[in-house]
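Colleagues,

For the teaching module next term, I've prepared a clean inverse folding example: a structure given as tokens, and then the sequence designed for it. I'd like students to try predicting residues themselves before seeing the answer, so please don't circulate the second half yet.
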């Protein structure tokens, strides 16, 4: 399945950005950035003096993970220049990772490593665009029957929900007040945001995303306008997706019972809620791992690129089993749903749901 996002490809700012860095001297053997003179700034490096634990804390990746990212992004970030002040791929990746992980102001990051604010901004947006271009490679549904079956087994082991390949939900990413069409981005809590649709699996990876809608748009509309909705309506997938009551009941999308009238329906709802906690946990990990997502201080188009970049990085981190401090990750909030507009259930969806309840939860 193809992720959906807004991508910006304009690297012309790089030439202007690099012209401002004439006073920088880069020691590329150690990836250390210095200003002209005798006062070296904090090194932008990963070498023997830094443990993987320290690197994970600063960049969210250890040595091997950073090397992997540099290799993946090199074709996108390598600059065809012989100027002594051109940033290496390694430096660009580390600057961007520091921003993604900390969410600090560009000025703070610039001062800590001895470059200018404009350089940090150019680097962050360039790396974000490069990572966004890799969405199709890192954000996708299981590619073969074996992967799909393994995914279903993982979900079933959580609460006994059969034939489930993922969980869908939308989450809001707070952004600064946009300069244009500001009112479209105000969500139901009165904050400006991008409303992002995510589908996640039991391995806490994101297998589909839609990153392009302002905060005022409802979750169900995002689904109905998405590529995955039209694809699955035409060709039913090998498995089902779970969603909350804000979504319509479809033959491939199961929602909970709004009114419970039997023990079997109660059992179904319990399993449904338990597994839906997976997507809440993914949201929590994503925003903990990349603190920049808690408040994105750029215009909506650039914000979409940053969100997409962090989704790609999240999946890479999950695949590489990058360790997390479980105590620091916020627990999913109780699944108390906000009032939702009425959704029209599909007759085929009701039939599938009834069969599931009779076979597995009675």
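(Answer key — instructors only)
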């Amino acid at each position: 399945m193809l992720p959906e996002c807004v991508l910006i490809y304009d690297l012309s700012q790089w030439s202007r950005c690099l012209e401002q860095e004439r006073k920088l001297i880069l020691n590329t053997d150690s990836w250390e950035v210095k200003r002209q003179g005798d006062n070296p700034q904090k090194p932008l490096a990963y070498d023997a003096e830094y443990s993987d634990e320290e690197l994970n804390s600063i960049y969210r990746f250890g040595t091997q993970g950073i090397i992997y990212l540099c290799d993946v992004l090199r074709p996108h970030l390598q600059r065809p220049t012989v100027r002594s002040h051109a940033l290496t791929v390694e430096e660009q990746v580390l600057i961007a990772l520091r921003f993604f992980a900390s969410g600090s102001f560009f000025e703070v990051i610039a001062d800590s490593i001895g470059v200018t604010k404009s350089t940090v901004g150019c680097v962050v947006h360039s790396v974000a665009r490069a990572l966004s271009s890799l969405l199709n490679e890192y954000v996708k549904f299981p590619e073969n029957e074996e992967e799909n079956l393994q995914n279903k087994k993982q979900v079933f082991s959580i609460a006994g929900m059969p034939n489930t390949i993922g969980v869908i939900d939308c989450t809001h990413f707070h952004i600064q007040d946009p300069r244009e069409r500001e009112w479209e981005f105000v969500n139901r809590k009165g904050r400006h945001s991008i409303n992002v649709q995510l589908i996640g699996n039991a391995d806490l990876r994101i297998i589909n995303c839609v990153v392009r809608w302002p905060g005022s748009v409802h979750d169900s509309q995002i689904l109905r306008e998405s590529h995955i909705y039209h694809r699955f309506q035409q060709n039913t997938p090998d498995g089902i997706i779970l969603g909350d009551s804000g979504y319509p009941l479809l033959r491939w999308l199961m929602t909970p019972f709004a009114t419970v009238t039997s023990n079997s329906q109660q059992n179904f709802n319990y399993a449904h809620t338990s597994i839906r906690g997976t997507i809440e946990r993914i949201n929590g990990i994503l925003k903990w791992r990349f603190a920049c997502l808690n408040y994105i201080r750029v215009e909506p188009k650039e914000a979409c690129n940053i969100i997409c970049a962090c989704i790609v990085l999240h999946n890479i981190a999950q695949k590489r089993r990058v360790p997390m401090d479980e105590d620091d990750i916020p627990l999913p909030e109780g699944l108390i749903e906000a009032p939702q507009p009425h959704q029209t259930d599909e007759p085929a969806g009701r039939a599938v749901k009834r069969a599931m309840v009779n076979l597995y939860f009675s």
